[in-house]
Amino acid sequence: MKHILQLLLLLFFSVSFSQKKVVKKLQTFADEITIYTAGLDNLVLENSTSEFIEVTLFAESYDDQLIKIEEKNKELFIKFDFEGTQTREVVFRKFITKRLQRANAVVKIPKGKKVFIFGENVDIESKSHQNELAIYIENGIVKLNEIKAKTTLKLYSGNVYASVKNTNLDINSKDGKIEVDEVLYEKTLQKKLLENTKDFSVTSLKANIFLTDK
Known about the structure:
Layout: H1 2-16, E1 19-27, E2 32-36, E3 42-47, E4 52-60, E5 64-72, E6 75-83, H2 86-91, E7 103-109, E8 114-118, E9 123-126, E10 133-146, E11 151-163, E12 168-173, E13 178-180, E14 183-185, E15 188-191, E16 199-204, E17 208-212
Parallel strand pairs: 2-6, 2-8, 3-7, 3-9, 8-10, 9-10, 10-11, 11-16, 11-17, 12-16, 13-17
Antiparallel strand pairs: 1-4, 4-7, 5-6, 12-15, 13-14
C-alpha cells in the first residue's frame, strides 16, 4: 500500500509540473484593453516592441487552456479559460494542501492604449509599462517598477511596490503601511508636482505600499 501511495504521488507531481504554453498575437485598432485575470496566479504586463498585442499563457496540469479575445466598439477584452483539472483534484484531494495547478500569463501591449486589469487573488507585475493603467483586484503582490504614465490601483490587501520619481502621488491605505524611501506615513500620502503629468494613486484598506523616490 505504501508503494502504491508513493507511485500515485510521483505520478501526480510529475503531471503537476508539466507546463503547457499557448500564444496569441494580433493587431487591433482598439483604444482600450481590458484583461480579466480569473484563473491566473500571475500576470506580467510588458511594452510591445511592435504594433501587435501578444498574449502568452503558461499553465501546469491542464488538459486544455484557452486565451479568449473579443473586440467591441474600440475595446478589446482578454480572458483565460482552463479545462481538465476537476478530475485530478478530486482523485488527489487527500494530498493537496493548496492549489497546485499554476497559471501565468504575459501580455505585451503597444504604446498609446489604455489598459484595465480586473481580478481577485492575483500577483501582477508591470515592467515599467508606458500606457495609462488601472488595476482593480482584491488581493495580491503588485510590482509596478517605474511609473511611466497615469496609474490607478485599487485593492483590498496585499503588497505594492513602485518607483515614483517625479510623480504626483495620492496614496491611501487605512490599515496598511505606507513607506517611501524607508520613511513611514500613516494612512495617506499626497504629493503634487504642478509641472508633472504622471499620476499614481492607490486606494486600499489593508495593503502595504513600498515606494522609492530616488
